[in-house]
Give the backbone structure.
Amino acid sequence: MQLKPWRSVRLEELVALWNKELEERFPMRKELLLQNSFLDENISYGGSRIVVNEKDRVIGFVIVKYVKEETPVKMRDDIGWIQALLVDSAYRKQGIGTLLLRHAEEVLKEKGMKGITLGRDTYHYFPGVPSEDKETARWFEKRDYQHYVTDYDMKCTYLASEKLAWPAMQNVEFLLLQEGEKDALLDFMHRCFPGRWEYEAMHYFKKGGTGREFVVVKENGKIIGFCRINDALSPIMMGNVNWAPLFDVDTVGGIGPLGVAASRRKNGYGLAVVRAAVAALRERGVTDIIIDWTGIIDFYKKLGYDIWKSYKAYKKEIG
C-alpha cells in the first residue's frame, strides 16, 4: 500500500472505484469528478491523496479543500472541507481510511484551519454523510466528528405532457435573466446574499453563463429575487444535477438556491419564483426536477416535492 499525489492522470481509475462502491446511489461521471475535484481552485493538492496497492491499482482516496482562490467575495477561510473519503470495500478495516483522514487533518491544521466539515465544499458532492451510511457516520463520530444538522434532497417528477404556466402577480414580473443583466444580478447578490451564493453566481459567469440559469423577480425593473435552475446544457454541473445519470440525463434538472430581498419577503414571491423556475425547466422538456441541500421541507412540499435523499452534516474542531 502506498500514498500517491492527487493527480488527474488517475481520473478513470478514481471514477471506476467510486462507481464500484457507490454507483447505485451516486453514479459518478468523469466530467463531474474533473470539475469538482480537480478544476476547483480550492483543492488542496497537499491534503488530497490516492492510495494504491502493490499492483499500483487505486484502492482509496481522500479529497481535501480549503479556500485558496483569490476572490472579492467574503468566504470563510478558517474551515477546511473533506469533499470525499472512499476506500475499496475489499481493503477496509486495514487502517487505510484512518491513514487518509489523519493526513488530511494534519495538512488542514498546518494551513491554520480551525475546523473541518464533511462535504459542503465549493463544487460539492454531498452536504454531509448520506443518512443510510450509518457505519460511516459512526466511524467519523469515533474520530470526534459531531453531527449538527440534517439536510435533504427533494424531487418531483412531471408528466411529459404536463403544462405549467408562469406565475402572474401584481407589481412584479418573473423573467429569465438576459445576457446584459450580469452586473445587475451580481450587484443584487452582493447586497442581499453575500458569500456562497454570490461566489457561485460569479463562477457561473466566469464559466460562460449567459443568464438562462437564473429566473429573477423584478419590481419596477429592478431585481428583488432569484432562483437558479440547471439542466443538461448548463455551463456548470451544480449539486442538484450531480446524480442525473439515475434518470434520463437530458430530462433532469435542478432548482436552487433561491432568495428574495429581505424588504420584499412575506409577499409570496419566494414560492412564486420557484413556480416560475419549474415552468422554465418544463418548457425545456425537463421532467425530473431535483432540489438539493435544503432544510425547508414544508416549503417545497407545497409545490409537490418529496424527500428523496438525506444527509447528516458533521464537523470537527481542530484549531
Q: What stands out?
A: DSSP finds eight helices and 13 strands in the chain. The first strand starts at residue 2 and ends at 5. The two ends are 30 Å apart (CA to CA). Residues 155-310 form a domain with the Aminopeptidase fold (CATH 3.40.630.30).
